[in-house]
Design goal:
Elements lengths: L1 H16 L2 E6 L7 H14 L3 E5 L13 E3 L2 H7 L16 H6 L3 H6 L2 E8 L1 H16 L5 E6 L17 H22 L2 E6 L6 H9 L4 E3 L11 H17 L5 E6 L2 H4 L2 H7 L18 H16 L5 E6 L1 H4 L5 H20 L4 E5 L5 E5 L21 H9 L9 H4 L11 H5 L2
Parallel strand pairs: 1-2, 1-4, 4-5, 5-10, 6-8, 6-9, 7-8
Antiparallel strand pairs: 2-3, 10-11
Helix pairs in contact: 2-3, 2-14, 7-8, 9-12
């Protein structure tokens, strides 16, 4: 028994003497979180490092007793291709008071941590930058490397590279959207889908174009007019009218939740939605069903117009965040995870890992992405001028044009009010 205790103490001392890295996941989940964590762990374990996983995001760094787990190779191998996040996530945003009074510097010292790896979106990256600055100011040599993720695909990575998780979320969303479209055709109904996308319409556009939806509405489309509830609804009605003219009594429209961000307070009140806000000041769109709201507004408008249409709401949100990663993200996230080690070995810190189309790994610094006045990272919007977008507008969507005015009078008295390009002032 005495020998066993001595062996246990020796193992503990040996473990603490080893150089370690700590890794945490912040914000909301995206497919590939575990792939990044597993790949980082496998790479550093094979180089002789101890790998510590921190639960509950950044809150673990401001807690005297953080929830932590040693990630060994079998655990890393078990989780790397799973959806969700083995490390529990959190949207915790530390205040200045947290930094002044609660930062657990002892965790880094006691565990001989040489690198903090953070996995998250722009908010997580901004907090990572604050932590790197704090550690530097306290003259404690801990590098910090961030791995950017979001299913919204709205981080402005160079060369049009997607953020990890987007391709898998789009794939799962398209599976749902295809099934819904088949239901529309089978039942002779319309469906109104709402897709995640806080600041940009990449996910809604990607899903809608993959499924040939007759109407896609994203905030970037309102580049020449003020966005209003009525314009959003009238775009859907434009598609309904056009499809009726074509002899098709069914269809589906997908709308990006990001349109709510562009609505004025008065317009939000018209929609009947009152938002609460998270720690980062963002409206908590996940607490309400945007599809239900859009569908309610659509039903009210078509009743006023006397158009006979049945519509149903479908939300595409939490269903896609913990999707099992598709092959694209499995490869991409593995490259990002292994890329963390390359940057660390080069001495890079206070940066994000970036892998370009050719597979080369380079550091990407927040200062190269952030707005010089606000110091925030501006979202990457859908480029509505590119051929990919314009081709969908011209050849996939169904909507009223001047050529349809005469036929459209069978359904509405003023067809020009539902002219797609007039609504958008294009």
């Amino acid at each position: 028994m005495h020998f066993a205790n001595r062996l246990k103490q020796y193992y503990k001392t040996y473990t603490l003497m080893k150089e370690a890295i700590a890794i945490l996941t912040g914000g909301g989940p995206a497919p590939g979180m575990n792939t990044v964590v597993g790949s980082v762990a496998k790479t550093f374990l094979q180089k002789g490092y101890r790998v510590i996983g921190l639960h509950e995001g950044y809150s673990g760094l401001f807690n005297p007793s953080p929830r932590m787990v040693d990630i060994d190779f079998p655990l890393a191998d078990d989780i790397f291709n799973r959806g969700g996040s083995f490390l529990q996530m959190s949207r915790f945003k530390p205040s200045q008071n947290d930094f002044d009074k609660n930062f657990n510097l002892k965790f880094f010292k006691d565990n001989n941590v040489k690198l903090l790896v953070t996995v998250g979106g722009d908010d997580t990256a901004s907090t990572a930058n604050r932590i790197a600055t704090f550690l530097k100011d306290n003259k404690y040599p801990v590098a910090n490397i961030h791995v950017p993720k979001t299913i919204d695909n709205d981080l402005p990575l160079p060369g049009g590279m997607p953020t990890f998780g987007y391709q898998s979320a789009k794939d799962k969303g398209a599976v749902i959207a295809r099934t819904v479209y088949m239901d529309a055709r089978t039942s002779g109904n319309w469906f109104v889908l709402a897709a995640m996308g806080r600041s940009a319409g990449h996910l809604a556009f990607g899903i809608g174009s993959a499924c040939h939806y007759p109407m896609i509405v994203i905030p970037e489309m309102f580049n020449r007019t003020t966005i209003t509830v009525q314009k959003i609804v009238d775009l859907v009605i434009s598609s309904i009218i056009k499809r009726k003219i074509m002899g098709m009594d069914y269809g589906a429209a997908i709308i990006s939740e990001g349109v709510f961000h562009e609505l004025s307070d008065e317009e939000c009140r018209k929609s009947g939605v009152t938002f609460s806000y998270d720690d980062h000041g963002h409206p908590e769109l996940g607490k309400v069903s945007k599809a239900h709201i859009f569908n309610e507004m659509l039903e009210k408008r078509i009743a006023e117009l006397g158009i006979k249409v049945k519509s149903r709401p479908v939300e595409i949100g939490y269903e896609v965040r913990c999707q099992t990663p598709v092959a694209y993200d499995l490869v991409y996230c593995s490259q990002l995870g292994m890329g963390v080690y390359k940057l660390f070995e080069q001495g890079d810190t206070g940066c994000m890992v970036y892998v370009n189309q050719e597979g080369f790994v380079t550091p990407l610094y927040l200062k190269d992405l952030e707005d010089h006045f606000t110091h925030k990272i501006p979202p990457r919007l859908v480029n509505i001028a590119c051929d990919k977008f314009q081709a969908v507008i011209d050849h996939i969507l169904s909507y009223v044009t001047p050529d349809d005015y005469e036929a459209a009078k069978k359904y509405v008295a003023n067809p020009e009010d539902f002219d797609f390009r007039k609504i958008l002032n294009w």
